[in-house]
């Protein structure tokens, strides 16, 4: 897909323009300089020509000096891969030394560049800022992302550049790749989510730092593997709400939670060396509540009891994960080191196993025979308050339509009284089903419906 890179110094409105062209709110828009640190990509909806927008981190004047080199690299990577560059400046602030320095860098590229003078909110500003012509990119297009001014003109300008390229591309046969999975990579700050994605991509696509909370936005990253187009969603690290420093972090946490909801599968990345924390359990609880397929990626395996034999390290890791994340019992785990590129092949090997096993559906007949055996093996206890015992009259499997890429099964039990199905016995029945049909990585939901008695006549 053709790409349009939006570049400029911090707080000139790049993310707001990105959202306007994308037709939806994706990049975090905030008046704190340097909010967008990573490349954020999304398909554009306003231009007629199919293209992908890339919103880069702000160059120079960053709120965090430690990120300046990484953000500069992000912008250069975006410019190197773009078919069109939108160079955004601020009409209110006027020309700055950072704008001029960036202009000198951009003049060296062969990629077409359009100057966008943003925050031109009124006609009275038309004559202001004529100094922008000194950048060497013409008089520029004046826009106001905040008020929607000249946004359609901007979309038309993008089409003017990209439509001739698109016509040539359409002469080439369409790709045979199939749509793959939306995979949300979630975890607390500094667990190694971005490092894991970088290792998978073999490209420093997201900023990796030892400062917790580097990734603030949920970044959608296309990834092709074995003839499939996957989307890796690099989410912001989730922290406890009470420890969130700014409103930006609150927005990031909300976006991460939405990323979990729209994902086909979640990779829960934990820092095995540091151990599982309350925040890890909270994120795991969100995955469980959303009924999402999950694979636990125990990162920093190289640092975990390195002096012990491998089998002892694995036993310790297994005990720790099962004890701390017992409620996410359906999720298998794999131990990796993203920084050392150790065992990364196991991640997609296990994802493929989860998908393959999820396609094995249990029939109604098989389910009822299995539950009949389970009842004989361990009869339900009598409910003391209701003075009755659970009776399962019939069971049928169902699959929620929301989960198409990886089916999530639901077992509907028709019983004499649904109040008699305790959590413990429901877990026992799930365990019995999983013994025959494991469905690793996929939640299995049991719901009970009470039998309706016919009205008595006479």
Please describe what this structure looks like:
- The chain is an alpha/beta fold and 458 residues long.
- The protein has eleven helices and 17 strands.
- Helix 10 crosses helix 11 (423-436).
- 38% of the residues are buried.
In short:
With 458 residues, the protein is an alpha/beta fold. The protein contains eleven helices and 17 strands.
Which stretches of 5+ consecutive residues score pLDDT under 50?
A: 62-67, 172-176, 454-458
Biggest sheet architecture: 6 strands, mixed
Overall pLDDT metric: 83
**Distance linking N and C termini:** 73 Å
Count of helix runs: 11
Query: Which term fits the overall shape?
Result: elongated
Strand count: 17
The strand line-up of the biggest sheet is 2-3-1-4-5-6
Which percent range fits the helix content? 25-40%
Question: What integer value in Å does the Rg equal?
Answer: 27 Å
- Which structural class do the helices and strands define? alpha/beta
